[in-house]
Design goal:
By secondary structure, the chain is of the alpha/beta class. The chain has eleven helices and 18 strands. Helix content is about 30%, strand content about 25%. Its cofactor is pyridoxal 5'-phosphate.
């Protein structure tokens, strides 16, 4: 019999979350009379651990898909996706342009080296690009003082028949908290002043949810947003839950109790003796550990649900097991179901918070040895 741990992915939850974001954008656009922004559903990192093919199915109503990896882009096409595919880091070497050409991929352009590679390429069709501005994130993108020249160079390649549409994009560093997006929006407006042709994209998950009006920043259009984590039912914010936006968890990590220990008062539980009992405790041993992707730093008090009853992790998470307090659920024994996060359990964000990390990391970190089930 296989070890009793599974991650299940709900296609209906993915569809629900996309529709929820769509309604949010439509409502914001209606308030200003703007045309609703199009959605690039971000499916990088194997769709945040949910699987590329599942994401293609779940986000079939999106206008486009966005990711980093060329192989994942090819998998989207092979799965039947015929819409736009945006490479968020663009291409890395001249040979990549053969794949860009063959599979009709849209590329982020963030460096002069990429523009030079495009100029030297021999392509069978025009490549659509988004010229990226570094508006303050200081990661990828042209500096504000260099942006107009870079955009003009892309326009020259467009006139030469190498490029198709030439868009503008940036990425917010603090849309999930202070200082917000105002300074970067101002930088974007100054750097792109006078540029009114081509698509525009500035919003990630946090900006899409908290500042939906910025979806229409910049003249021209069409305007696109790039939601990621919210589409999987997790929150981009520390202070606002995904459920408050009506989002549903798409991934549920589940296991079972495989042993029960009666531990007397004053005894240690787990490696390092980080937890000692103050009275007789009934402890359940769960078939899940950090080798499955559960965070090792999720210490005593991390929420978990056993047989539908909320309880807590106690002691240190080990490679293959973790221990839970069965006091709130005295009837639970070997074989009792355990919801580690997702449907019927704590949110992945609550587990991540207890472990000093973010839900993104946990969703992406589920190990290959965990069987993954697809639910409609």
């Amino acid at each position: 019999m296989p070890r009793p741990i599974t991650a299940s992915i709900s296609i209906s939850a993915l569809r629900h979350n996309l529709a929820t974001v769509r309604r949010h954008l439509d409502h914001a656009a209606a308030l200003t009379g703007a045309t609703p922004a199009s959605i690039w559903a971000v499916i990088k990192a194997n769709a945040y651990g949910h699987g590329i093919e599942r994401a293609v199915s779940g986000f079939s109503a999106a206008q486009g898909l966005a990711m980093l990896d060329l192989d994942e882009a090819v998998r989207c096409r092979e799965a039947g996706w015929g819409g736009p595919v945006l490479l968020l880091e663009g291409f890395f070497q001249p040979a990549d342009l053969d794949i860009v050409d063959r599979y009709h991929l849209t590329c982020t352009v963030h460096s002069s080296e990429q523009l030079a590679m495009l100029a030297a390429a021999r392509l069978s069709r025009r490549v659509d690009v988004m010229v990226k501005l570094n508006s303050g994130m200081n990661r990828l993108g042209f500096a504000p003082e260099d942006y107009a020249q870079a955009h003009a160079r892309a326009g020259q390649l467009q006139r030469q028949g190498i490029l198709g549409s030439v868009g503008r994009m940036t990425h917010f560093a603090c849309a999930d908290g202070a200082p917000g997006v105002a300074d970067q929006l101002e930088t974007f407006a100054r750097a792109t002043e006078g540029l009114s042709d081509g698509p525009v994209s500035v919003c990630n998950s946090a900006a899409t949810l908290r500042y939906p009006e910025t979806a229409h920043a910049g003249a021209g259009g069409p305007h696109w947003v790039r939601p990621g984590i919210c589409l999987y039912g997790a929150s981009p914010f520390d202070d606002v839950s995904a459920a408050s936006y009506g989002l549903r968890p798409a991934m549920s990590l589940r296991s079972e109790i495989i042993a029960v220990q009666q531990v007397p008062a004053g005894q240690a539980i787990g490696y390092g003796a980080t937890f000692r009992t103050e009275q007789l405790m009934r402890i359940g041993v769960v078939a899940c550990g950090y080798a499955d992707g559960y965070p090792r730093h999720a210490g005593t008090g991390t929420p978990v649900t056993v047989a539908g009853v909320p309880t807590r992790v106690v002691g240190r998470v080990s490679m293959d097991m973790l221990m839970v307090d069965l006091a709130p659920v005295p009837a639970a024994g070997v074989g009792a179901p355990v919801a580690l996060w997702g449907e019927g359990g704590p949110s992945v964000d609550d587990v991540a918070r207890a472990a000093g990390t973010i839900g993104y990391e946990l969703l992406c970190a589920v190990a290959p040895r965990v069987p993954v089930l697809t639910r409609p």
